[in-house]
Amino acid sequence: MLSERRLEVLRAIVQDYVGTEEPVGSKALTERHRLGVSPATVRNDMAVLEDEGYIAQPHTSAGRIPTDKGYRLFVDKLAGVKPLSSPERRAIQNFLDGAVDLDDVVARTVRLLAQLTRQVAVVQYPSLTRSTVRHVELLALAPARLMLVLITDTGRVEQRHVDCPAPFSETSLADLRARLNSRVVGRRFTDVPQLVQDLADSFEAEDRGTVSTVLSTLLETLVEETEERLMIGGTANLTRFGHDFPLTIRPVLEALEEQVVLLKLLGEAKDSGMTVRIGHEIAHEGLNSTSVVAVGYGSGDEAVAKLGVVGPTRMDYPGTMGAVRAVARYVGQILAES
């Protein structure tokens, strides 16, 4: 266990390195921070921190920089989440309140996160498996062709065309719409298959084929992979941190292009709490020089999706964590009110 003084020295090293981009020496630490001890004592503390693997000497300079282990201890023990100012919170609310639909909410959230953190922002669309049904609409396009519109509690809208085996009357269509909604509205998507499994049997024989076709289309919509969608923005921000990536930025950019990698990273975030993955804690080799800050968001107590940022390990963790948490909270409020 490190002493409180050495923890303070580590905190100061992280803060200075993040702020200046330069390795930090003992003289600079004693000048910038009220550590209450001599430079010689600070040098001794830095030697212990280096022996323990929390800081490292990047080259022959006297300065030290935090390691992944040092950042991890900083995040776990030393970094409070920095709250956003009132103007920042108002700006977030005003920007997100202007959204017209779910796609616009996600697009605005990505832009906002990228601007606030100056990192790469990643936002997952609300998952259908965690959503509930708000409404099912059935529209006649032709005597034997329908449109099925599925609307979720998170504002997501899925549309499918249905080719019926026989013409379907307006009366039968209205009957199916009413009966279908009475069974599934307000229910979890995972419950829908069981709720509608015997619905076709309650219709007249000549309509059962069409009802079964509509139900099959509905169930296909629930399980399609379209739910695993995300939006990414702010990739150009990484070019500001070229010297933070040891060899080249290319592996990072290539990893960010792989949606399955990003979905896995977001999937590691706890539904309710903040998750921070630092450097080599990230399983994907291309992202070993980055950190990921992610959190769940939703319209109620349960998260329906995740959002977060990817940036270099030399990151303003308190500020980034505060921004990610605040944006997630506002997005959840918008979904609850939509």
- Strand order across the largest sheet: 7-3-10-9-8
Strand residue percentage: 15-25%
Give the termini distance in whole angstroms: 49 Å
Order of helices and strands: HHHEEHHHEEEEHHHEHHEEEH
Mean pLDDT: 86
Instruction: Provide a count of the helices.
Output: 12
Instruction: Describe the main β-sheet briefly.
Output: 5 strands, antiparallel
| Backbone shape | elongated
Stretches where pLDDT falls below 50 for ≥5 residues? none
What is the helical fraction, as a range of percent? 40-55%
Tell how many strands the DSSP assignment holds: 10
Rg calc: 26 Å
Structural class: alpha+beta
Give the gist of this structure:
With 338 residues, this protein is an alpha+beta fold.
Describe this structure in words.
The structure is a single chain. The longest helix is centred in the C-terminal third of the chain and has 21 residues, at 317-337. This protein has a five-stranded antiparallel β-sheet, sandwiched between helices. Strands 4-5-6 form a three-stranded antiparallel β-sheet. It has twelve helices and ten strands. Helix 1 crosses helix 3 (39-51), helix 2 (26-32) packs across helix 3 (39-51) and helix 5 packs parallel to helix 12 (317-337). It has 338 residues and is α+β, with helices and mostly antiparallel strands.
